[in-house]
Amino acid sequence: MQKFLVIGMGPGAPEWTLPAAIEAAASAEVLLGSEKLINAHAGNECKKMLVPLSGSIEHFLDKLETHRQNYKCAVLVTGDPGYYSLLSAVRRRFKPADFIVIPGITAFQLACARLGLSWQNYRLTSAHGKSLESMLARLSPEDGAVILTDRNHNPHTIGKYLTDSNWSNRNGWICENIGKEEEDIEKIELFNIPENKEYRLCLMILQPASAE
Amino acid sequence: MQKFLVIGMGPGAPEWTLPAAIEAAASAEVLLGSEKLINAHAGNECKKMLVPLSGSIEHFLDKLETHRQNYKCAVLVTGDPGYYSLLSAVRRRFKPADFIVIPGITAFQLACARLGLSWQNYRLTSAHGKSLESMLARLSPEDGAVILTDRNHNPHTIGKYLTDSNWSNRNGWICENIGKEEEDIEKIELFNIPENKEYRLCLMILQPASAE
Which residues pair with B30 in a beta bridge? Predict the structure, then answer.
């Protein structure tokens, strides 16, 4: 059985996708992933089988397991497969020898580039689908932070939690739809993050305390 | 005066360089950076001025400051400008409004992809040109680690330091020349990193303690 591919397609527009990723996707007979991504890389000849992500991740991996018996499969993901993406779930189901990973630019790398920020000393974490307490454990009040948010733990909620956890005020940015047409970067202060706005596909960047 | 560019060219072979980076480099009149990088992107028509990196960083930035008065300049760097690269020095000299950053894949992203590793929970640090003590402060014995090494703080030295700091044994990899023809990934154990080998352009990845 040939190896399947897990390919990072980057944060949005084609200019942020690696040639290695384009080539790998083109080589596959079956593309699996979000409908938008697999349609974008289906090619003109319609020879590829397209398997959209629907239902649970485990159900999706079942389909991958079936198709890889007979076809060269590629799972397309946004960003980098190794950064809050599908690779953890793939690793739980398959052996490393079963697949090949192609890395990609993650949204926060592009956001930091837009802002001219070096991210090497920033703490990277996510509030998506986990407690704010466990998020906080990965941060340090002195260092900068890159935080993936979700509907429950949105920038306002996270800002309030950090303020209540005795973080000092600092500047930061709320970055939405990075790499996409609707990209929006809003400057904020930790103590004053708008409450009522609905944020989508959103990451929050906070400067180190010393940058104040 | 037009903005200059700071462009991440990725870890080596062209397949790991973003189309946005290629396009940005092509748009510049002056390319500044390592001789190898600027020659690779000089184009065929030899119309670009090439300014190789020589001497100190400050001297290099002086040249950038001069050329940007009259020309569209691009500084080419390997990896991602925001990750242990030139961007910190650029930020100290210039205002964010003076330049545009194009992100790139860093070597550790490609190394983790090769190994099929999710790096989201790994601590990222560097032992390059700083004390092992300050490197240790960025790590946690339970978490995985990605460590950039140098000649003085090579994998053996770092392994010994972590062992002496009561880290438990764990598996890891020494990754050399990632993304280049001479790429080499060697599996190691923290307690048993070869002493005499000379490592070049090297990063070390250590699994979390719980992966044992």
Answer: B49, B73
